[in-house]
Amino acid sequence: MEDGDNITLKEEDKMDAIECIKGRMSIRKFKPDPVPEEVLLSIIDIARWSPSYKNSQPWELVIVSGTKREELSRMLIKLLENGKAPQPDLPEPQSWTEEIDLRIKEHLRRRGEVLGIDLTDPASLKNAKIANFRFYGAPHVIFLFQESTLTPWSILDMGMFAQSIMLAACAYGIGTVPQAFLTDYATEVKRFLAIPDSKRLILGISIGYPDLEDRANSYRSSRVETSKILRWIE
């Protein structure tokens, strides 16, 4: 595909796109089988057509697999076990509006019931974070980076790029889960992956074949009704 080529979708392909948007879910238990390299490459090749401010395309990514994935997982868990304080390049939100705060709490409560996470128990919360650092068993993990001097517009662009990765993966029957926790130790991750400090780590995405028989993947988060987020002005 070359720049400027027209893209025409068949009717069934349009429906596939809609199904992926509505059917995509965060996978928290993967099968160990690796995804073929050509499939991963195709997913990224599709995602690079994401929109960006003035076509700036402010994204870089690294896919980690195999023994390096195992080493990275052990490093993250060790940092957690040693009590290392999280230092993500993008600070974690410290406050929400009351409406959003209630929505988040209800989501965490419902998800915790399915995953067996006791939100009042520090040990249970720690185990949940360790599961994150084990990439929920996914054979591959993607890290997204961009230059740290870029503006919030570029972070918005990265969000669209990340969504494109997850939707393209869905079209291939591949599962994903975006993980903010994978940015907790940004400096150490960048050092491990030989990424310069001038880059900021935006997001980690575990990717692989979903284990849909596992209870962890039975949870589906809810969405606010369209009527509550939309106003018509004529």
Structural class: alpha+beta
Uncertain segments are none
Which sequence of strands runs across the widest sheet? 1-2-4-3
How far apart the termini lie comes to: 40 Å
Structure, explained:
The chain is α+β, with helices and mostly antiparallel strands. The protein has a 4-stranded antiparallel beta sheet with strand order 1-2-4-3, sandwiched between helices. It starts with 10 loop residues before the first helix and ends in a 26-residue tail after the last strand. Helix content is 41%, strand content 12%. It contains 7 helices and 4 strands. Helix 1 (11-23) crosses helix 6 (152-171) and helix 2 (37-47) crosses helix 6. The chain has a domain at 22-93 and 134-219: NADH Oxidase (3-Layer(aba) Sandwich).
Set down the secondary structure blueprint.
Layout: H1 11-23, H2 37-47, E1 60-65, H3 66-81, H4 98-115, H5 122-133, E2 140-147, H6 152-171, E3 175-179, H7 186-192, E4 199-208
Antiparallel strand pairs: 1-2, 2-4, 3-4
Helix pairs in contact: 1-6, 2-6
Concise account of the structure shown:
The protein has seven helices and four strands, in the order ααβαααβαβαβ. By secondary structure, it is an alpha+beta fold.
Throw out a few tags for this protein.
12% strand; globular; single chain; four-stranded antiparallel β-sheet
